[in-house]
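call fold(seq) -> tokens
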Amino acid sequence: MKTKLVWLFILLIFRGSLLAKTLNALDFGAKGDGITLDTASIQKTIDMAAGQGGQVLIPRKHTFLVSTLELKSGIDFCIQGTLLISTNQSDYTGDGVITAMNARDLKITGHGKILGQSLAFMTGYDATNEWWLFKPWRPKLFVLTGCANLTVRDITFGDAPFWGLHMLGCENVLVDNVTVDNRLDVPNCDGIDPDHCRHVEIRHCQITCGDDAIVVKATRQTNDFGACADIRVHDCVIRTQDAGLKIGTETTSDIRNVLFERCKILSSSRGLCIQLRDEGTVSNIVFRNIEFTSRYHSDPWWGRGEAISFTAIPRAPETKLGTLADITVENVTGRAENSIRVNGSPQSHIQNVCFKNVSLELARWTKYPGQVYDNRPTKVLEPIKPHETDGFNLRYVQNAVLEHCSVKWKRADAKQFANAVKTEHTSQLTISDFAGD
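ret:
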């Protein structure tokens, strides 16, 4: 009997320790009524869970009004209900809502939502330019800095007033089955931004946003977060008014070994995009098995319907521009209102570009003016430059290959387009098995 009681006591302790690992925010004073600011109560839950390596539960059927939350190492921040971000700047201690600094083994999971209340951060709607005008301050939904072994899975966030999932200087990252549901007419509401990150996989995401959907970059920082490297993006579905899959424009450090594959871009202003504007080197980039649509939008939205846009242009006259090299585009099919554009500069030719099994259909179906390229951001070239709309337009390129590629025009719109292939200041061009008019 005594032995049975001892084992029962041990079992109860073990069971209690298991239960203690899931901490419900409601048990730490959170109201979950969507009106009371629950930041302090949820932060208390996070701090308690961090000491135990436990799960913070944001429970179903509740809406929690929050401002800046700082996640900690070893926790699973499990969002099952709804986080509604505060619109009061004084509630925040930084520029982000869900934040973390140097956290390890952090998980952000659950099938709940984060709602950004974007229009509360706007001053009004500009009907001429077809976008919302923003106030001086607006928070990012996520700012995760210097994290290692980070997982973001199954969550939904949307209506973001500014960048969505910003990961700065993070390593060993998995972003899986994340849904981004932003407004298409709010500027700067990027979807997912790995910035100075290494060993990142982004997969099975559904992204709708006004700005870049998935963008790899290296922003200028006071701390050295190192290169951006070894990133794979695959099996995502995208709708945006900017670039679908992008590198840049911020390229202050090297960006290398990036693979984009098996993605569908339903709408964009540039389907595939690399914008080198700074001193970093961008190299070994692959776009493979992708379908896209790219179209014109109203001024001043970025991009001018370029199907594919790879550019190396100095940001300013004093910029010591890096190199853009070793790019492969393979098994890619698209419909667009503007060219496949590869445009280097006299001081930095784009090197080693291969297009293989790339098919482009050119047509016009929007009301906006055409026959221009978007060079922004730059103080060296004309920002919006009038230009004939070719199928492939290559300028300042060394060693380019077009293998089994095709360009076709919608017959009714053919008069708006120029050459199938046009090159300037381009050396070592190989074209084989090309079809076009």
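The first strand starts at residue 22 and ends at 24.
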